[in-house]
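>> Question from a student workshop board

For tomorrow's exercise we were told to take the sequence and the ligand below, predict the bound structure, and bring the output to class. My setup keeps failing. Could a helper post the expected result so I can at least see what it should look like? The ligand is NAP.
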Amino acid sequence: MSQLVDLVIFGGTGDLSTRKLLPALYQLHRHGLADRIGRIIATGRGEMDTETFRTEAQGNLRRFMADNHWSDAIWSRFRDSLHYVQVEAGDAQDYADLAGLLNENGAPIRLYYLATLPSLYGTICQHLDAAGAVNDHSRVVLEKPLGHDLDSCRAINEDVAQVFSEESTFRIDHYLGKETVQNLLAVRFGNPLLHPVWKNTFVDNVQITVAEEIGVEGRGSYYAKTGALRDMVQNHLLQVLSIVAMEPPASLDASDIRDEKMKVLRCLQPITAANVKACTVRGRYDAGAVAGQPVKGFLEEAEYKDAENTETFVALKATINNWRWAGVPFYLRTGKRLSRRYSEIVIEFKKQPFSLFANDPNELTNKLVIRLQPDETITMHTLNKKPGLTRNLRLQPVELHLTDDRSDKNDSYDAYERLLLDAINGDQTLFMRRDEVETAWRWIDTIIEAWDETAMPVKSYNSGTMGPNASTALTARDDRSWYE
Ligand SMILES: NC(=O)c1ccc[n+]([C@@H]2O[C@H](COP(=O)([O-])OP(=O)(O)OC[C@H]3O[C@@H](n4cnc5c(N)ncnc54)[C@H](OP(=O)(O)O)[C@@H]3O)[C@@H](O)[C@H]2O)c1
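>> Workshop helper replied:
Here is what the output should look like for this input. Compare the format with yours to find the bug.
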């Protein structure tokens, strides 16, 4: 029988815990997958008793969850597992209290979820260790951002590694918890039809878009120091890219998959001062309208002195120097206040060498479109004959939907549910290994150095559009275009 796990959330009163973690844990109960979860101990700096925390948690769950997911019977079980302990990250006595609670009929496995400021991760790990709250069966989950460059990322990893081994460290990228990202593995490696065409002989280009409608939403001072490249490309987009581009792994085990992802990251060609202007675009949103509502520009919202040099949009052309992908551009783009919210991977296949038809199918190339949000779908864009009695055969686009619309909507789950369940079960497959994160930072740091060296401008774009015109030019220079 699998052992019980006590889960301790540092930052248990924060936004992430309230909106994502506690609802995901409730859903695990609802889906009957909580049999390994012992106590859920939330920590925060404020003085509060467990009863008050439970009452607040109930109100928040009702606020952030669909009404038809609520059940008094499930809440009653979930409620009993919730506890609150006051912990100030630097206060040794607070850890002694926490360790005392953990030792009272504690579960054999402890999972510490650090959903608080990354600058506190080292301190928290050291105090947990000093309080005797870490043993060989303890694990730690680290939320992003893991630093703001390679050096700061290494420092956090080094501090955590003093207490937790790499096998006990789970670095979250919630994109990896999305059903479609895992489905991508199934589609790629389960279909003999697709396997032979997944390479430069057949693929013309790959596009990865993560578009947000929202602006910086109260995160202005954090975001002004960070920008879209660090906030989104370093983690989500490069993680998705590495899964799209990796070689078939020896097995679906964590180490085999992560070895293959790592090889892709190592093959990324550095973008330096010599090619940064040709390969990257930086943008910043001005005022405009999103979903019919007027919105402010970033500089009006950010109130940070260096915000003029912060990008809220980035587009880039990445090159993977290996046998499979030589010559295939990977276009990545992400931004805030864009025309709509969606995340998508597009694998665009090469054009026909010659057209037999009355209309040109080259305008309608085959594409595999993998949508990660708002809906999770996989669609193959193909061509067939336009019905009719006209003499010339004409082509028309036909979409083949590869996602199972028979599946019950009640089976759908949030990425945090998947990732929490995996961390509870000790499965690291969908978490980032230290070398992956550090290699990604090395590539990102080189771009930022090149931006500094060349005084790369940040071009403005109207809110509610898909970024600056230079983004269109990035693909147009290669005689290609973004799939919209
Ligand atoms: N929010 C999101 O959607 C999101 C998404 C991805 C990643 N993240 C990451 O998740 C982490 C938490 O984000 P958040 O948005 O939840 O932040 P938040 O709302 O500001 O919450 C911060 C939490 O950390 C606790 N805390 C702050 N300073 C502390 C200290 N000195 N000692 C002990 N506890 C302390 C706070 O406790 P009290 O307020 O009770 O004192 C609170 O529970 C950050 O690393 C963030 O980058 C957040």
